[in-house]
Write a structure and sequence with these properties.
single chain, 367 residues, alpha/beta, Rossmann fold, 6-stranded parallel sheet, 12 strands
Length: 367
Amino acid sequence: MEFRVLEQIAWLNAHGHQAWLATPKGGESFKRASAQGLPLIDVDFDRPWRLDTIRRMRSLIRELKIEVADAHVTRDAKVLMLCRDLVAVIRSRHITQRLKPGILRSLQWRWGADGVIAVAECIAKSMIADGLAAPERTWVVGEWADESFFADVDEDARSQQRKNWDCQENEIVVATVSMLRPDKGLEHTVASLAPLLDANLPVKLLVVGGVTEEGMGYSDLLKQKADRLGVARYVVFAGYSENVARTLMAADMVAVPSIANEAQSRVVPQAFAAGKPVVATRVGGLPELVQEGKTGLLVPPGDPLSLARAIEKLATDPDLAKRLTENAKALAMADLRMDRQMEATLSIYSKALERGRGRPYLPLRRP
């Protein structure tokens, strides 16, 4: 979620709009945004009902003449509920975990926002079914790939990337790109290496992604599992990548082994754009993009053997891999470019602003 939000803010400012990230100073989001030179507002949302938090947000909205606020987590949405006479509010939902319906939650989502953006169709459907979002005010804006992923492959850069991680030219490099957390199911990709190596397939796993404080134990678990299965020498923990497009150059295919909470996954459109075949699990919104036998291969979650079979199929059937890759690239070029998705987002912001001005209750005050 964090990376998507930062990309949104960067895009908006680069395309003639004024956009800020409101987040507590000292947090990871603040640090990343600051490093990128993005406009920042220091607001501590940890206690959203505090009067000083609400006053600060209302003051900032007036001072900066903010017209639309896009709330990505519950705490900031609670504050913005009490600013709706000043600003149109959008709520964005990024994960597939269902919210328990209730009167207060329904009020927060249906009354507290002028619209909902879901990052996957399955999220929108569940929220509407649970009565938390009105169908006419719920939109889907899925994941995207920025233009760097669509660039032609630089063979010299690809060769160098593989050398960086000691990947031999004959090795089939399978990449995963995600935070290292249990719901990402990375242990199943590690486990899939054993049957592949037993079949004499020269495979190497490139695990790309940072470790959060909460995920430290999980990172250790992955390494222990690789040791226990005797595949540690075939696993490279590459860490966080500032340039995923360049990192993906080293890969021959991408695996998305999530077991829970996954929407469409940022790496799927990125892999499509980069021309990398994808194996993903039938979880959340992944099948919305990874269509079995058309744009990729799908396997059950938590099933290393099925994952291994899919990887082997792509590695040993170049015609299949080529067809899937071409279909996926065409989909990415037509529907998954960042500019297209952000234009859709802007259209939703405009609709939210129009609705805010015409509300029968608490209409926006004219500037």
